[in-house]
Amino acid sequence: MGFRMVLGAQEDIDVIGEAADGLDAVQMADKLRPDVVLMDVRMPVMDGVEATKRITEADSAKVLVMTTFDMDEYALSALRNGASGFLLKDTPPSDLVSALRAVASGDAVVSPSVTKRLLGRFLGDGGGELRDASVLDVLTEREREVLVLIAKGLSNTELARKLFLSEATVKTHVGRILAKLELRDRVQAVVLAYETGLVRPGDA
After folding, report:
1. 5 three-state secondary structure
2. Is residue 52 pLDDT above 60, yes or no?
């Protein structure tokens, strides 16, 4: 109810449905086709991770996951299953609204530093196996360099400054990286960079 009040007060946001559980969320997303689904990870009948997977696989909507803990393993699972990012439930209303707008426009809202901590916990400390890095062979040397910097948390503006490129060129590189690796957004690019060992937890 609180989220609905906050979001409903925005001129550019319409709340078109509320789901009681994960299965309900999947069915409503398929029927209503919202731009973004604000997903809780812990729900009855079907949890938010599975619901996120089904919604994104069906291309019904983009998903922004809400969680209670910034080190919650559910958050990493949601990212792996297509979420465009996650926020803590105590996120200030203004940040929540900004996050939804960002996801709707195609951006991701997970802080790379938070993703880095998650991956450090579940991959870097022996909690998971690395993926075959050959998946990155489709990238040029410059694209690999850009992917490393994305994974380290640099914005397009910072990338442009560091690589002495225009922001338009950086955006082109990022778009090509996502297309070649068949990724939805920068969040999945960060996850893949860590999962393949291109960047490791603790790297500066």
Report:
1. helix
2. yes
